[in-house]
Amino acid sequence: MRSVLLVAQLAPPSTLVAARRVGGFAKYLARLGYRVTILTSRVSGEGEIDGAETVVRTNDLLLTRFNWRRRHFKAFSGENEGNYARPSSLQRVVVPDLALATWLPFALPRALALAREKRFDCVVTSSPPHSVHAIGLALRRRGFCWIADFRDGWTFEPNQDPWPLGLQGRADAVLERWVVRRATAVAGVTEPIVDDLRRRFGVQVELITNGFDPEEAPAIEDDALLDPKRHSLVHTGRMAAAGRSPEPLLAGLRELKEKAPQAADRLELVFAGPLTADEKELLAAPDVEGFVRRLGALPRPRVLALQQHADSLLVITEGSRRSVATGKVFEYLAAGRTVLVLGDETEAARIVTETGAGFAVPASDKLAIAAALRKLVDSSFDAGASPDKASRYAYPELAKRLAELIEDVCRC
Question: What global pTM score does this model have?
Fold first, then answer.
């Protein structure tokens, strides 16, 4: 039995996408015969994790009085009601990210202690935050096999504005190069991220996408949150945290109201998840009242039930980042409903069209969005990904790919 140390700031019981990736790998690697130790932050919560032999949760300054944005973080993660805010401006100060100051001082010493206690066959560090890979660098120097896992690009299509100082940008690029070239193996979550790392650094990079857990159960009861007399287009999760906005969608709705009011009357847009104050204001505009419903943050089983009972499901991107394939895409595949993607050149669009789950339109074209909304309302078809095509994005299959990569690096 191989022994694997999986390091990530977020892990279950958090329901954020990063945590679900960690939980999916732990659960199904264990079923493949691996002994999994997870090193994570207490910001994710407490308790055991399915499949993990050992769970080590360290302190994190995000949990202390030094974090004056704790209320926003709880709203963002869906723990509390209320608005969440965009990332702190301090993110533009610390290279590569704030976790270097808030979590790494606790996580790195604990990782080194674990490495002295156990002889892990392989260490997997999963980012963002990208500073987590400093743990991989430290353990690689001590002779451990190390896989650097990228859930987002680092300097490629970053999910943040450019660094204010050139020195910061250069330092960020140097850190990225150290990680990619010193790791025993590298994995990326989307094809554009994988292709970029291969091109710039000349290393082999494996594609291991995000996915869904086929054993995760929705709420048992029928969902009563949707209007059975109207076509419900449902969006679950967050938008502003990744630079997305519902504004182009609402512009398309207004266009549909003007050009095809009867079709618009048969449509409702449903948003389930934490919102910023700006998003709430947009969704409460008088000219979309009666067409938009805000459900707020819901328990995870309720979200899954909502996805399965929706007439169709919505993915919003800003359109400029090709590497975007939000975690909800894979949940939507599992739900088997028609998926509309705003952002026709993104990885999310490629996955949805490749699996036959739905279709995509340009992210900011209100005419194309209005036509897509009318297509959903007028069509009697129920697309949805076929079970065989969706299954390639299930965590049992993804864990097998990670296991193959672990075996490869252990033979090096």
Answer: 0.91
